Amino acid sequence: MRVAYEIPLCTSAPSVFILLGTAMQRVLIATSNPGKLRDFAGAASPHGIEIASLPNFASIPPVVEDGETFEANARKKAEAYSRYAPGEIVLADDSGLEVDALHGAPGVHSARYAAEAPHLVERNTDDQANNARLLRELKNVPRDKRTGRFICVLAAARDGATLATFRGVAEGRILDTPRGVNGFGYDPLFYFPQITKTFAELTAEEKANHSHRGAAFRQFLKWCNQRNA
Ligand code: ITT
How far is the CA of 88 from the centre of ligand 1 (A)? Predict the structure, then answer.
């Protein structure tokens, strides 16, 4: 007989189960980006944790991401979406690429960088167009000046209130031609010197070991453990 009973991963999170002594835990993520879901799954799997999309996410009205910081947008998303899963801890991230030679752009506008006025539009532009704009903007910038970083701010909220936020950073360099077919967004242009590969040349599990999102997710897990200690 399989017996399932709940243990608190995060206080009162009812989606954590022990099945026949094997910890199987589930974390709810609110995102419209399948690439982010894959990244979270890659970060969670070594810990025996399952990532689940917020139920009926596609039918929930999207949050307008008009904050000036990653943190403001991450909190806004997590708070709004957590109202659709009463009593559950819901995670949402806001993330993007900051390029030094572009004074931090595309930054919080990373998902809409190909738009003429990225700060004025609400809809995301597609990854290829965003990458093409990035390459255009960096056309005359030499290799040693193409430094930048991915940033991910992950917010955990319950019933419309943020409980905590976690920030992860990955430092790298922007190539002048794409490399690799995995990942999403700017991954094919983001070269990570530590492993001499772009993020698009990594599996989801490998990316999680080095990425901004993996780092933020590990901080979330640590926070959960501390709350339960
Ligand atoms: P949700 O808001 O629904 O989660 P989104 O794609 O709109 O999905 P963001 O507003 O946080 O998410 O925008 C993040 C953008 O930054 C994303 O669309 C990519 O262009 C870029 N980005 C963030 N993390 C990335 C990563 O790990 N690899 C490549 N590009 C990334």
Answer: 24
Query: Is the CATH number 1.20.120.1200 carried by domain 3-228?
Result: no
Q: Say how many CA atoms lie within 13 Å of 66 toward its Cβ.
A: 6
The verdict on whether 144 is a catalytic residue reads no
Q: Which atom belonging to ligand 1 lies closest to the Cα atom of 63?
A: 2
Integer Cα distance of 46 and 221 in angstroms: 12
Tokens encoding 80: 């709004």
Going residue by residue through the chain, which has 229 residues, state the pLDDT in tens, using 9 for 90 and above: 333 333 344 443 444 433 333 454 889 999 999 999 999 999 999 998 999 999 999 999 999 999 999 999 999 999 999 999 999 999 999 999 999 999 999 999 999 999 988 888 888 999 999 999 999 999 999 999 999 999 999 999 999 999 999 999 999 999 999 999 999 999 999 999 999 999 999 999 999 999 999 999 999 999 998 887 7
Burial of 53: CB neighbours in 10 Å, binned 0-12, 13-18, 19+: middle
Domain boundary assignment for the chain: 3-228
